[in-house]
């Protein structure tokens, strides 16, 4: 069936299906991004904690906060709890949950 021959309701239905499909794909991309940024943030907090214990080179606080602000707040918060890291720094206590 050619596009021109379809009724108005058929064309609306096709348009709505495409919009829904685009919305689902967008949601999946956002969910994938958030999962990845939170995993990266969690791992980097763990690395920073290990480096702190060994008195080695550290990851900048600004980098850790930027990752939290870029969507990795859940990973940062979990890492703070799991690794007991940055839990006494006011800026982390205030800014990570925000």
Calculate the mean pLDDT score and round it. Answer: 81
Strand segment tally? 0
- Helix vs. strand class: mainly alpha
Order of H and E elements: HHH
Shape: rod-shaped
Reported for the largest beta sheet, the result is:
none
User: Helical residue percent?
Assistant: over 70%
Distance N terminus to C terminus?
Answer: 53 Å
Q: Kindly provide the radius of gyration, computed on alpha-carbon positions and rounded to a whole number of angstroms.
A: 22 Å
Helical element count? 3
User: Spans of 5+ residues with little confidence (pLDDT < 50)?
Assistant: none
Binned strand content: under 5%
Describe this structure in words.
The chain is mostly helical. The protein has helices spanning 8-53, 61-83, 90-95. The longest helix is centred in the N-terminal third of the chain and has 46 residues, at 8-53. The radius of gyration is 22 Å and the shape is rod-shaped. The termini are far apart. The mean pLDDT is 81.
